[in-house]
What we know:
Order of helices and strands: HEEHHHEHHHEEHHHHHHHEHHHHH
Shape: globular
Strand content: under 5%
Mean pLDDT: 82
Distance between the termini: 57 Å
Radius of gyration: 21 Å
Helix content: over 70%
Strand order of the largest sheet: 1-2
Low-confidence stretches: 272-276
Amino acid sequence: MEHIIRIISAIYSLLWGDLFTLPLPGGGSVGISLLVLLLIPTGIYFTIRTRFLPIRMFPEMLRITAEKNVSAHGSAISGVQALIVSTATRVGMGNLIGVVAAISAGGAGAVFWMWASALIGSSTAFIEATLAQLYKEKDPLYGGWRGGPAYYIHGFVEQKLGKKRRRSVLAVLFAVSGLICWCGISQVISNSVSSAFQNAFSIPPLYTTVLLVALAAVIVLRKNATVKVLDVLVPIMAVCYFGITLFLIARNITVLPSVFRRIFEEAFGIRQAVAGGFGAVLMNGVKRGLFSNEAGSGSAPCAAAAGDTSHPAKTGLLQALGVFIDTIIICSCTAFIMLVTPQEYIDGLGGMDLLQASMQYHLGRFGVVFIALILWLFCFSTFIGILFYARSNVAYLFGDNWISQTAYKVVALIMLFIGGLAAYTFVWDLGDVGVGLMTVFNIIVILPMGREALDALRDYERGMKAREYR
Length: 470
């Protein structure tokens, strides 16, 4: 067991640790991890190749969400429903604790670099989601469609070899990494929820965990309850959180100009009082932004493939919008809640304590309760969403059978239960290793395959001019 832990730790350090350090003017430095080295250049490359799609096509993204969302293929889900599933998993712990950690370590300037990462991440999200649509398959168990990186990686390998394969090593590695990652996340979810409820309501973790697992089991063990539940849950939690933030901003409107000034000043290292100077500001913002919106990790395409849309690029545009929703809207909500709080109320605090202290300052006891409840909704929807992701990966590895599908769900529920009672750092690191490996395998393939998604985008834009897709 010790050997396995050492191997996992070594892989974790390779993926998430500083691969090398760049010196900066003024004596500072910035550490570059392997994942940032992969994601940032990829995002910039696709942003340029799509001709700044996140800005140029933003009105079209909004128009698509307003379309009548009726699937033409029975039990298949619509493109917007696929967006809701991916939003359920994107909008989670990263939007709360992740943003708090970024600002704690990098200051207000980290918020600007989170916004910048969302801009380039949207282009990557478009490419991987469009590829998922191009390589999707019929789902004989659940109905509708299925797919994701395992499937387009498999297609890529077959193209290179010039022959059909039952499975490919790279696709298998991606699918296994995903299943490991999502089991790890299950523990993080339940531990975060049980801790928050213990702080807010003094409820013992056992009671919270049993209720969480029971509710999750009722939903995920039913054939097609997932999308129906998320259709209701995700809009409610997003609107509630956004609404509370707008209310708090309105109450503190006079300090808003100073908040924006602080964000932009610290973003470029003008104010060096922030811990670590410019390097800490830049990398904390970029890392938290990239790993909150999941662009490039290959997880959201597992939902994108299930969407039934009239053109593959439509799904790509919807998933690009999902990055905007996650980082520009939801992550910014958390950031502004903290940044409009007087510094003396949150000095020395970090993590959930910092966020709850901010909410208590603004809304008293109600604020603490609200954050605990919204965290529960964020985490609960994330768990349901990741098991939707897991469907296609389980099918790729073990074939189309209910035994393997149900077995993975039961394992995830067990992990959910264990995590609610105790935090095991090893399992959390395993989850981080899983998402890191997913990202590596996904980026390796979407770079050479990106031209197919770009061709789909050009075809869609020609159709837009001819009003074929309106």
